[in-house]
Here is the input.
Amino acid sequence: MADFAFLHGGGQGGWVWAETIAAIARQAGDAARCLALDAPGCGAKRGRETDGIGWDALNRELVEDIEAAGLRDVILVGHSQAGMNLPDMAAIRPGLFRRLVFVTCSAPLAGRTTLDQVGEGLQGEHPDQVGWPVDPATHTMAERYRVMFCNDMAPVAAGAFLARLGADMWPRVCYTHRDWHRDHLAAMPVSYVLCLKDMSLPPAWQETFAARLHADRIIRIDAGHQVMNTRPQALAEVLLAEAG
Here is the structure.
């Protein structure tokens, strides 16, 4: 049916896709091949020195990982911060990808970094910043993560998920890069999965990012930011439908 390549978001690794890949296997069996990518410094690539990795080299490495796995006609799926890499990966090997699927992904305007896009205030305080769901001046990063990532998780599941954070770190360039190119996506099949309970990227911002990414389809799921962990069956159904 299709080959899927999955790219994780910031502070996570390919491990985050395990539940969704298992759900795809239950539904499609051998008809779908899945590859969970790891950015340098994350997952199976933890421990690498990444300060010298440039933006183009990072994206080439991820594309080469897909090619090395023998995948073709790929549905490229990215989550959150990965939305900034998928357009450049598609530009490197446009013939490799059947469709791009952005799962509650961010897409800063040209000239702004991902950190600029988040900002330092509360959500809704600044019209050009996503903001934080709780006051960053009075809440630790761990407290912020619990709200941003785990608002639709049971307490035990939330604790297990939060315990896995902290070991994965994307290269520094991901937080300084600001030269975004997305016009070529207008000529490609692009889907955006909008998560209605997301406390990290509110739905209104996801609508904005979907437009910036030239999404021709928007699919809504009643889930939080970590939809691949909390609603893997629903996400798998969406992805298999988008592969059709």
